[in-house]
Design a protein that fits this description.
The chain is an all-alpha fold. It has one domain (7-80). Helix content is 91%, strand content 0%. Helix 1 crosses helix 2 (22-80).
Length: 81
């Protein structure tokens, strides 16, 4: 058994053309293209969503020392009063 060559691919394409018609094959191709586009966009959005919490966690770590310093300053002011 050999691999599929050019003549075999042409026969398969002709059979598909006869079964579905030219318009239907164009619609199938359009649908496949849109599906691939949506899939790639979904992967990109999922990657962006994964990065967003990491950035938020980093900003929270930076904000905690500042909030702690404010709390200490308020406690010192209360002790002086």
């Amino acid at each position: 058994m050999g691999s599929i060559g050019a003549p075999e691919l042409i026969v398969i394409a002709l059979i598909a053309l006869l079964l579905f018609g030219a318009g239907r094959i164009a619609d199938i191709g359009k649908g496949l293209g849109q599906g691939i586009k949506n899939f790639k966009q979904g992967l990109k959005e999922a990657g962006d969503d994964d990065e967003a919490p990491a950035k938020d966690a980093k900003s929270e770590k930076e904000a905690k020392p500042a909030a702690k310093a404010k709390k200490e300053t308020k406690e010192e002011a209360a002790e002086e009063a």
